[in-house]
Amino acid sequence: MASVVFHIDVNSAYLSWTAVEQLKNGAGVDLREIPSIIGGDKKSRHGVVLAKSISAKKYGIRTGEPVVNAFRKCPGLVMEAPDHKMYREKSERLMEYLRGFTTKIEQVSVDECYMDFTEIAERYPSTLDAAFLIKNGIREKFGFTVNVGISENKLLAKMASDFEKPDKVHTLFLKEIPAKMWPLPVGELFMAGKSSVDVFKKLEIHTIGDLANAEPGLIELHLKSHGKMLWEFANGIDHSVVHWEPAEAKGIGNSTTLAEDASTYEEVKEVFTALAESVGRRLRKAGQKACMVSMEIKYHDFQSMSHQMQLPKPTNEDQVLYESACRLFLEAWSGEPVRLLGIRTAKLVDAAQPEQLSIFDIEVPKPVDEKHKRLNAAMMEIKKKFGEDAVIKASRMKK
Length: 399
Known about the structure:
The chain has about 400 residues and is an alpha+beta fold.
């Protein structure tokens, strides 16, 4: 039986959910129909763009850029602050609705999941009929829209859901790759970041098709294992499965209440450096690697929130944990002073088990090289013998 995987992605989730909530409370304007963003503090205009409307995108506004830049591009821009508690509630209701179709769901972020439809596909006239039933049902029941991608594997389902938006259903089956995926710019391939695209340009690889038909050894020579993975993706090769069963292993994490509220990203990064070292050390000591990282914030007014993401492959390396926590923080930070920060890991696996690359909607953190692995191991031994403060990285020393 051929596998059938759906990828469900809420269209501009934070903005859509905010718009739906405002309309429910009597708002006269739909944020989705005007140049608008979800970002940081309205008065100070600090923080980054977390979500944008289609008309805001036309001004060149990008997710992740500073809010102040967005206002330079569009002075009449409307901005609303994020409400992560409300987003979690919307997400939970969405997942509850989807579980009415199948319990084989892997949620990879607050607004995105995979569904294994293999065993129940025969209940519907076609997979397209099932996808439209889900998509239209979400719009009618909740008032926001989703894209649904359909394929034989997670990679291609994810790629399909990223085609034309919003409120669309797309297929990308293996037989459709040459016509639908290969003509696309190589930068649109899942997990192909800017640095990888720069290398491809030097190799005169401009489309996904160019990469798919390139010599895999040449790509691996320039981009190591990440290059091999991208070449496989370009050819639609993906062996990951929908992980729908609850993880058995409990997580490992650490948090700290700050002596003084942190109000800048530079201060936050210093705290995350220490936390990542602590969590990484505990993971290695336990012989575990984490498949998921979450970041926790408690603001100066004691409001709390957390944000999590899947990792491309299990890790217990400090640098990967640090970079992941920083990325999550920038996505979620309202710009308000922070009283507490935390890093937690979940979906733990045995560190000795063979690694298999998986598919998740994030950029791959830069791999930790052997030199830094040996350095981390040496620091761990010193701390074990002489205490936690016996040795620290120079970057953590007070200026």
